[in-house]
Amino acid sequence: MIRNAKTNDLIRILEIYRYARQFMSEHNNPTQWPDHYPPKELLEEYLGKQQLYVVTEGECIHGVFTFFIGEDDTYKVISAGSWLSDAPYGTIQFMAN
Asked: Is there a contact between 10 and 40 (Cβ–Cβ < 8 Å)?
């Protein structure tokens, strides 16, 4: 099941990101998410905007990601190519399990 994250989920969410950083580092991707990234403060910001989601089975949280619809600063400048449309789009970021 996918649901909006809650404040009391943050401890588990941070554990998942810590594991993901370790996994990436051990599998030749040590720089994508440096230590403590994404930072707790950024996750709290997404949480407050109801843009932070968890993937659960029963009461256990297995994954986490952010999702929002609207312009994302990351994609304002595209150096190779262009958007196919000016229509609104959704962005999924910080996916980890």
From this structure: yes
